[in-house]
Amino acid sequence: MSNITPTEVQMKPAEYKSGVTPIWCPGCGDYSVLLEITKALSAMALKPEDVAVVSGIGCSSRIPAYLKTYGFHGVHGRAIPLASGLKVARPDLTVICAGGDGDGFSIGGNHFLHACRRNLDITYIVMDNQVYGMTKGQASPTTEADWDSVLMPGGTGIRPFQPLVIALASGANFVARAFSGDVAGTTDTIIEAIRHPGFSFVQVLSPCVTFRPDQKLWRKQVRKAPVEYTTDPSTAARRIMTDDGFNLGILYRGDRPPYTLKTKNGGDKESTLGSEFQI
What we know:
Blueprint: H1 30-43, E1 51-55, E2 70-73, H2 79-89, E3 94-100, H3 101-107, H4 109-118, E4 122-128, H5 163-170, E5 174-179, H6 183-195, E6 200-205, H7 218-221, E7 223-224, H8 233-242, E8 247-253, H9 269-275
Parallel strand pairs: 1-2, 1-3, 3-4, 4-6, 5-6, 7-8
Antiparallel strand pairs: 5-8
Helix pairs in contact: 1-6, 3-4, 4-5, 5-8
């Protein structure tokens, strides 16, 4: 389980917000994800100073600025390496990585694969809207092959990236899908992801109503997965590959132990690292 330090007095969700006003488009699903993260932190009674939220570039990657926790807004596609380095250096922190489908699965795709493989105790929340919203509507890795747009007439013709299957095949220890409009369900999923040891991946379907107004229909299409989560990766893979992308819930829970840094002398790694920089 993550190193979680509860507060003496439970904070309200709004108390985790920084006071910086979000600048997302009206109707963006990321507003709900921000709320769901604060509700999860509140429900777990975590101290803001014991949580770090790391992001890359994109609409959803603005989230660290809107929270009172520690935060780092990195460069495009490099959120996971930053979060990984932080977790290794400060294993006492609850580390959450936040981003979008472009940041996480395109330029950051290779980091995503190896983070799943390494299995550090990090929670990775990807707000997937199947489009590059901040750069005005280009197709992203998860965009449907036949999505017709001004920038890509007739569609890309390229099969969409399958993040849940890739995460599972690469070794993620917890795999789930949520919908930003399902506040209670997504909050519960984020709580379970943080609590589960190892690399937890949560794909949150988060509509971009500006460039993908058709995604307003997601609210009617999403549904709770018809079966409970499995601990068998092959069963989870079959379920994910045969659903239509709208089944919500925890899909897989693994039991691999999280990666921990091993020092040469087996001692305290913080003191060991500090001694290396002493003059």
